[in-house]
Design a protein that fits this description.
Helix content: 40-55%
Order of helices and strands: HEHEHEEHHEHE
Strand order of the largest sheet: 4-3-2-5-6
Structural class: alpha/beta
Number of helices: 6
Largest sheet: 5 strands, mixed
Distance between the termini: 25 Å
CATH superfamily of the largest domain: von Willebrand factor, type A domain
């Protein structure tokens, strides 16, 4: 387990390539979240006595005098995993753009910086942003310093991510994997991957794969 080298200049290059896409995604998600959280005045249900008194006293023809249904907003924790193995080298630009877009989105939508983290893996495990860290210049510089080499220990990376996120108590615990979908490095690695996914799901941890220019994921 280690940290990637810091390269803020490379981060700026990545950001320049996907800035508009990140902005559009964030705007769309903010609109969707506002639509879900919005609870307009109801025209039926249990009467709100205070509203009824005000309407009668003012002789207002309003009919929206019923109690609101309270929405309980779900809380989220999120771990983002990047496959930084050698097989990802040819699509590394696209992979890093996806990683940065997800990071910017998480930073914008998840107000608690301790509720999300970001890591990379090959046959090692790299800390880009730990749960205890803020999304600051140091963390962002690590994105630019990610290099692609080595084998792809996807089951092991998922297992570590699961151990990290299971310490959180949010309603939804999510792991997102950015990969070409080809774990490689030791015998029966696909069996290990299936078992790891089953363990995570039984622990109520959701896993979503984002294929990098491949259908394998």
């Amino acid at each position: 387990m280690e940290f990637p080298e810091k390269d803020y200049t490379e981060l700026l290059r990545i950001k320049s390539r996907c800035k508009s896409e990140a902005h559009r995604l964030i705007e769309s998600l903010l609109v969707a979240r506002d639509a879900i959280d919005e609870d307009p005045r109801k025209l039926y249900g249990v009467l709100d006595l205070q509203d009824v008194i005000q309407v009668i006293a003012s002789k207002n023809p309003r009919m929206d005098v019923f109690m609101l249904d309270e929405n309980i907003s779900k809380s989220y924790s999120w771990v983002i995993l990047l496959d930084a193995s050698r097989s990802m080298e040819i699509v590394k630009d696209f992979a890093l753009e996806v990683l940065l877009i997800l990071a910017e989105t998480a930073n914008e939508l998840l107000l608690d910086s301790a509720s999300w983290a970001m890591y990379a893996f090959n046959d090692r495990f790299f800390v880009i942003k730990d749960l205890k860290e803020r999304y600051n210049v140091n963390v962002k510089s690590r994105i630019g310093g990610v290099s692609f080499a080595g084998l792809s220990y996807l089951p092991d990376a998922l297992n570590i991510a699961g151990q990290i996120i299971k310490t959180r108590t949010e309603n939804l615990r999510l792991i997102t994997v950015i990969s070409d979908g080809w774990p490689y490095g030791y015998p029966n690695i696909n069996v290990a991957l299936t078992e790891t996914l089953s363990t995570l799901q039984s622990g109520k941890i959701d896993v979503v794969g984002i294929g990098v220019q491949t259908r394998k994921m």
